[in-house]
Design a protein that fits this description.
The protein has helices at 17-29, 42-49, 68-78, 93-102, 114-125, 133-140, 159-169, 174-181, 185-199, 204-214; strands at 8-13, 33-39, 56-59, 83-88, 106-109. By secondary structure, the chain is α/β, with parallel strands linked by helices. The protein has two domains: 3-137, Response regulator (Rossmann fold); 146-214, Arc Repressor Mutant, subunit A, CATH 1.10.10.10.
Length: 217
């Protein structure tokens, strides 16, 4: 099997058995994903990681033995090729910012449908930074009003790339953007990866902020 076709290995760390089972089922049901292991706490996850590697980690923040951000830092230090996505109920500034500072590159709220979480895992593995729309808007407000926008510069985005980013700015999910533009979800992520590359950013929030600063949006 060629490397590109190998399944993406996923670790799920959540102390609620029902939630963990839901996420594990979402991983198993997606053709591009395979479950490496599930764990209910930080110590259990670290022990499991010694025997089974994961390329993408789903980590809750409210774990019973230690803060989930400690696990994020541990993964970032010990497994630099792995990517961590927070899946939590906390959407406030303190939790979001500190999670990214710890090394997370994605942030979803637990009310995200399981099928969307599975697709977000693929997006994360392919270089994206999935963030729940409500969290993205919340974080973006931290940047609004911090000074005048930079003078407009040449717009590097194509018409379609700009159109996709405009819909993302409105808080639409990838599936909603795909439906609005009558394109596939995969095509939406392809356009966004081009936007990230051209604007030299790593997430939807950063892309919208940078585009506003440049006068593109």
């Amino acid at each position: 099997m060629p490397a590109a076709a190998l399944p993406i290995t996923v670790a799920v760390v959540d102390d609620e058995p029902e939630v963990r089972a839901l996420f594990e089922s979402a991983v198993r049901s997606h053709e591009r994903l395979t479950l490496a292991f599930g764990a209910g706490g930080v110590a259990e996850a670290m022990a499991a990681a010694a025997h089974r590697s994961a390329q993408v980690w789903l980590v809750d923040l409210g774990l019973p033995d230690r803060d989930g951000r400690e696990l994020i830092r541990w993964v970032t230090e010990r497994q630099p090729d792995a990517s961590v996505m927070v899946v939590t109920v906390f959407g406030d500034d303190r939790h979001v910012v500190s999670s990214f500072e710890a090394g997370a590159v994605g942030y979803l709220l637990k009310d995200t449908p399981p099928d969307q979480i599975a697709r977000a895992i693929v997006e994360l593995h392919e270089g994206g930074s999935p963030i729940s729309p409500s969290v993205a808007r919340h974080v973006l407000r931290r940047f609004v009003g911090r000074g005048p926008a930079a003078a407009p510069v040449d717009d590097p985005l194509s018409d379609r790339e700009r159109e996709v980013l405009q819909l993302i700015e409105k808080g639409m999910t990838y599936e909603e953007v795909a439906q609005a533009l009558q394109i596939s979800w995969h095509t939406v992520t392809t356009f966004l990866r081009r936007v990230y590359r051209k604007l030299q950013v790593n997430s939807r929030t950063e892309a919208v902020y940078e585009a506003r600063q440049r006068g593109i949006l």
